[in-house]
Amino acid sequence: MPRTVFAALGLTASALCLTSCGGSDTPLPPTAPSPSTAMTITVAGQNGAQSFSPNPASAGGQMVVFRNADSIPHRVVLNDGSVDTGDIAPGTTSRAVQMPVSGTNYHCSLHPAMVGAVNASGGAAPPCEGIYCDRTR
Q1: Where are the alpha helices (DSSP H) in 1-137?
Q2: Helix, strand or coil for residue 5?
Q3: Domain of 109?
Q4: Structural domain contains residue 113
């Protein structure tokens, strides 16, 4: 084959790569961390402030998953309502959720006496406020 044919094939392949491999104006969506890269808080059962382990968790600003080690469903909700895991069936783990850097307090919406806290990044948990705070803490 003449050199011009190889050159033409090379230019065509380069052009195809540049057009198909080129960038886009649309950014890719961020990938959610897998549960293996997030801190795990275990839902141990209905036992007030002892319902979650660790409690408080040193997870301010981190991704967290809740693993239900109990025999009944639970649903973890931050007291300010900003995060709701949805029902977590026995033996399963919630999706990863971002904890506030300032720390937070949370509860099980199915069993409101189950309460927990996340320490602020490098500090203590914020003071608990709301109707869930006076429950067996």
Answers
A1: 3-20
A2: helix
A3: 35-118
A4: yes
CA distance 124 to 105: 11
CATH for 48: 2.60.40.420
- So what's the pLDDT on residue 129? 72
C-alpha gyration radius of the chain: 24
Residue carrying structure tokens 């104006």 = 25
CB-side exposure of 12: number of CA atoms within 13 Å? 6
Considering the domain boundaries, does residue 105 fall inside one? yes
The answer, as to whether pTM is greater than 0.85, is no
Q: What is the count of structural domains for the chain? A: 1
DSSP state at residue 31: P
* pLDDT per residue of the chain (137 residues) written in tens, 0 to 9: 555 544 444 444 444 444 444 444 444 343 444 556 899 999 999 998 899 999 999 999 999 999 999 999 999 999 999 999 999 999 999 999 999 999 999 999 999 999 999 999 888 888 887 777 765 44
**Which two three-digit tokens encode residue 71?**
């025999």
Q: Does residue 104 lie in a domain region?
A: yes
Query: Cα(47)–Cα(107) distance, rounded to whole angstroms?
Result: 12
